[in-house]
């Protein structure tokens, strides 16, 4: 088992949650989402995000609109749908539960030692 | 110096040099392939990726006349990631099937959780969306009615991978297979192949049509031709791959048929042997007889000598068709080779053994007097034994039969040759010459002597056996019995009809053919037998020409009519000199 694979797997798991979280403050176009994720060091390469965005959109959690750009190709602006917002709320609770649980487990282990 | 190409990425125009263009195209193709599990979302994702690449490139370009080169593309691929990175773990989305119904297609895996043997049936059941029980019943029917079920099962066992990860297990149980899905899958496969061929052809023709190419032909002839050859090579390889698969399928087909035949042969031979039909029904190759190596071992050798090469062919075919099949380990390869060589040597040894058994001819002679009263007519008859052979008619042939004489298995043969000759001696006698082959003169002679042959003189009847018996192991030693009846001059004999097929070149004055001789009376003269009551029609041509009462001959020399009646001769000749009458 490669450590790289596990790391990538962990990151991919939270990626979906993070994309939705970025959009909760308002719409953003692809490059903005990418740069935020990159700044947070959640992303090594951009490729992973495109299929995720498409699937979230197909799942009805996201919607998008086109906007012309002066410096380059037209931009795709993504925004949360109503279902997306509900979905995100649920994920928020799950996430805090998960963090608590993981902390509990990892701290327990360190005290035992 | 590099050619540049104009491309459109997300609606923006770019100058890109040729090598960079090819690199970018390869990259996008690789992504397209790694996303092929999701054909509908794929185009959208690719579109997004193209847009992003366009965006990244336009950030890098300061001057509109700037050309994108290979290093730019390298930078971009570093940012975007390798094609594998585009694969989203299926598990993340597996529970969302309700709103993306077409994005996953079912795959055939073996089901290790619900398995009977290898999980093939359960896997097929998942694939077709039916209960595994039905598949198993179908398989049993196949096994009983055609027997091929076993072999197909083994092939599938080897070819189909087992579902190991959760993703694979879910994929195994995925959406039901319906006609439109099958059709879509086939179309995709076909498009993949045809687009590869088309791409190859297009890039080749593009090169030829390009005016720049023509202008630079002289300088670049070498590399240009080389590139065309490369492209042609790629097309050839694609075509060759398709043919390779066909050849692989053919190999599997041929090898499988041979193996099935072998297995069935071995099975039926085994049951016949066990049920004790034995040698009457099974025809072994000649050298299986009287061999130092036991028959069953020779059969195993034959099975291995034929079976192993076909098994190897079979595995080869499987490997051509599927990369899943692993090659044999070196140990397996070597032991297969070793077993095969041993089997060949065994068969070769048996062959040499068989050949040497026939190396020498052996003969055993015996002579017996028969007492005759000179005035008697001797009737010569051939007799058979109905208790031994089940053939209705007694006649000479080259076949053999296995018979039981007092519960001992023996060889029954009718290779008996009868000749009648004149002798100076006062008494008639019969000479019996028995022949056999053997691996040395002594055993050949002994085998010849062991041939059982009898005749009887009963009143005025000479009863010759129309058959002989021998040890069954001597089946292929070309054994035969020659009988010569020596008669003093003036003895009168009658040949019974039963002698018809046994007479062998009997000398007679009238040149009558052996098969016409029976049912007539003959008198022994110094020059052989003379027929006393024969119809002239059966006389030989040579005799008729010389002694016949009427003879007409028409050939290239002319016409010749000859009449011969009680020492009065008349002859008419018509030839190129005219007509003469004597």
UniProtKB/TrEMBL annotation, chain A:
<dbReference type="InterPro" id="IPR005149">
    <property type="entry name" value="Tscrpt_reg_PadR_N"/>
</dbReference>
<dbReference type="InterPro" id="IPR052509">
    <property type="entry name" value="Metal_resp_DNA-bind_regulator"/>
</dbReference>
<protein>
    <submittedName>
        <fullName>Transcriptional regulator, PadR family</fullName>
    </submittedName>
</protein>
<dbReference type="InterPro" id="IPR011991">
    <property type="entry name" value="ArsR-like_HTH"/>
</dbReference>
<dbReference type="InterPro" id="IPR036390">
    <property type="entry name" value="WH_DNA-bd_sf"/>
</dbReference>
<dbReference type="GO" id="GO:0006355">
    <property type="term" value="P:regulation of DNA-templated transcription"/>
</dbReference>
<dbReference type="Pfam" id="PF03551">
    <property type="entry name" value="PadR"/>
</dbReference>
<dbReference type="InterPro" id="IPR036388">
    <property type="entry name" value="WH-like_DNA-bd_sf"/>
</dbReference>
<feature type="domain" description="Transcription regulator PadR N-terminal">
    <location>
        <begin position="19"/>
        <end position="89"/>
    </location>
</feature>
TrEMBL record, chain B:
<feature type="transmembrane region" description="Helical">
    <location>
        <begin position="141"/>
        <end position="163"/>
    </location>
</feature>
<dbReference type="InterPro" id="IPR054321">
    <property type="entry name" value="PspC-rel_TM"/>
</dbReference>
<dbReference type="Pfam" id="PF04024">
    <property type="entry name" value="PspC"/>
</dbReference>
<keyword id="KW-1133">Transmembrane helix</keyword>
<feature type="domain" description="PspC-related transmembrane region">
    <location>
        <begin position="216"/>
        <end position="357"/>
    </location>
</feature>
<dbReference type="InterPro" id="IPR007168">
    <property type="entry name" value="Phageshock_PspC_N"/>
</dbReference>
<dbReference type="InterPro" id="IPR054319">
    <property type="entry name" value="PspC-rel_ToastRack"/>
</dbReference>
<protein>
    <submittedName>
        <fullName>Phage shock protein C (PspC) family protein</fullName>
    </submittedName>
</protein>
<keyword id="KW-1003">Cell membrane</keyword>
<dbReference type="InterPro" id="IPR052027">
    <property type="entry name" value="PspC"/>
</dbReference>
<dbReference type="Pfam" id="PF22744">
    <property type="entry name" value="Toast-rack_PspC-Cterm"/>
</dbReference>
<feature type="transmembrane region" description="Helical">
    <location>
        <begin position="116"/>
        <end position="135"/>
    </location>
</feature>
<feature type="transmembrane region" description="Helical">
    <location>
        <begin position="246"/>
        <end position="272"/>
    </location>
</feature>
<dbReference type="GO" id="GO:0005886">
    <property type="term" value="C:plasma membrane"/>
</dbReference>
<feature type="transmembrane region" description="Helical">
    <location>
        <begin position="334"/>
        <end position="355"/>
    </location>
</feature>
<dbReference type="Pfam" id="PF22571">
    <property type="entry name" value="LiaI-LiaF-TM_PspC"/>
</dbReference>
<keyword id="KW-0472">Membrane</keyword>
<feature type="transmembrane region" description="Helical">
    <location>
        <begin position="292"/>
        <end position="322"/>
    </location>
</feature>
<feature type="domain" description="Phage shock protein PspC N-terminal">
    <location>
        <begin position="106"/>
        <end position="162"/>
    </location>
</feature>
<feature type="domain" description="PspC-related ToastRack">
    <location>
        <begin position="405"/>
        <end position="536"/>
    </location>
</feature>
<keyword id="KW-0812">Transmembrane</keyword>
